[in-house]
Design goal:
Blueprint lengths: L1 H23 L6 H20 L1 H4 L3 H7 L1 H11 L3 H4 L8 H17 L6 H11 L2 H13 L5 H8 L2 H7 L5 H20 L3 H17 L5 H17 L7 H21 L2 H14 L1 H4 L19 H14 L9 H22 L4 H4 L1 H18 L5 H7 L1 H12 L10
Helix pairs in contact: 1-2, 1-8, 2-8, 2-10, 5-7, 8-11, 9-12, 9-23, 12-13, 12-14, 14-15, 14-21, 18-21, 19-23, 21-23
Length: about 400
């Protein structure tokens, strides 16, 4: 009983710690946003816990599936050996790291009978998106979001949904988000501190969700592509463009050594057509099940279409349930936000090189990750970093000049 109580004390202290941090951070600029967002999550947590079998039917089984294995592993190797030798682990190393960081401790304290403390801690961690959004918007537009815009980003339905969900989603999304941000800062100006942040975030990303390392690759690639093909005045940027072309070639050679086009083609045509993605059809969440490339040249149209579905699924014509309709409406709203920014003549976006680089980055990542996903539920989870970045790009674009800081 005392251990169980300690789990709630830890959860309460995490809330108090977050409140204290945001009270001090930038003199409490987003304190109201944080408090309202925290209140929404606290209200939602009991609801999600009671109806978890309907909302997230696989949530608890997946959480507990590897918990006992993690206990055996940690008793033999230590709790944080996963950080040093992650690729020696037989099982989902991302879940092992998630347990070692905080989830396993809370599950032990509650004897896996009460998941509310873990949901509370996850909800608090989700508020870190406020820090990322502020830093990212200052980077691309040199402005800070208004309270309303920050509230929309922090409580966007897809983000809010996973902020009270059990599992590694929150840390596995937030880490590459900050990694991309500081990687771009490192490109602009070298700093040992920034390099350390990028290195640590890249390593943690490899452990948490390996395929998310593509966020780092596409960040570098999109910057190089922008310099080579989109930046004007060749004669003034000749050296930068030549260097960019050279680095693209080097990056392509390195990537091809570990993951070639033929590997991708094999994954799409063989593994996906017979894998778990198809099984999602029973719930009506699968899409483009009969759409596969038959030859390498088909990837030229297959990958962009898959990328489009990855970002905006479930498409309105695929909707079968109320929750799918709600998801589709918000996905469509993001689509129209993007179109609006692109067509406005004097938008901040069109004057910001960094915003264009990151939009290109998101297009590339959607095509890379989307090529291997044919399930709207999986796409919704895997595209969370993309959703946050796109919301920052399209919502903050219309902040007035007098709100610059």
């Amino acid at each position: 009983m005392s251990q169980h109580l300690f789990a709630y004390i830890f959860a309460i202290f995490s809330i108090l710690g977050a409140i204290l941090f945001f009270k001090i951070w930038h003199k409490g600029a987003y304190m109201n946003v944080v408090m309202y967002s925290l209140l929404i999550r606290i209200v939602l947590i009991p609801f999600f816990d009671i109806y978890r079998d309907k909302i997230f039917p696989a949530e608890i089984p997946e959480l507990l599936q590897w918990y006992e294995e993690w206990i055996k592993y940690s008793d033999l190797n230590g709790y944080f050996n996963i950080l040093l030798k992650p690729f020696d682990v037989e099982g989902p190393r991302g879940m092992y790291l998630y347990y070692s960081m905080y989830a396993g401790w809370l599950l032990r304290l509650t004897d896996t009978n009460d998941f509310i403390p873990l949901r509370i801690v996850t909800a608090v961690i989700s508020l870190t998106v406020v820090v990322f959004s502020y830093k990212f918007c200052k980077l691309i537009y040199k402005k800070k979001p208004t309270n309303m815009q920050m509230f929309v980003i922090t409580n966007w339905p897809f983000w809010l949904l996973y902020s009270v969900n059990l599992g590694r989603t929150m840390p596995s999304v937030l880490i590459p988000l900050f990694g991309m941000l500081y990687l771009y800062k490192l490109i602009q100006r070298f700093s040992v501190f920034t390099l350390i942040i990028v290195t640590v975030s890249f390593w943690l990303t490899l452990i948490f969700r390996t395929f998310f390392f593509f966020f780092f690759v596409t960040t570098l690639l999109s910057y190089l592509l922008y310099i080579v093909f989109l930046e004007k005045k060749w004669h003034e940027n000749k050296i930068k463009k030549i260097a960019g072309i050279s680095l693209i070639i080097v990056l392509s050679i390195i990537c091809s050594k570990y993951f070639s086009i033929l590997d991708a083609f094999s994954l799409i045509t063989d593994d996906l057509s017979n894998g778990d993605q198809v099984n999602g059809d029973a719930t009506g969440s699968s899409y483009l099940l009969n759409f596969f490339p038959t030859q390498l040249s088909d990837l030229l149209y297959y990958v962009p279409i898959q990328g489009l579905y990855f970002l905006f699924s479930p498409m309105i014509w695929d909707v079968l349930k109320l929750e799918q309709l709600i998801s589709s409406i918000f996905a469509l709203s993001l689509f129209f936000f993007i179109i609006r920014v692109l067509i406005i003549k004097n938008s901040e976006f069109k004057r910001s090189k960094i915003a264009k680089v990151f939009l290109l980055n998101m297009i590339l990542i959607c095509m890379v990750l989307g090529a291997g996903v044919k399930n709207a539920g999986a796409a919704q989870r895997w595209r969370l970093p993309v959703t946050v970045i796109l919301l920052c790009i399209v919502l903050i674009d219309n902040v007035k000049n007098d709100e610059r800081t």
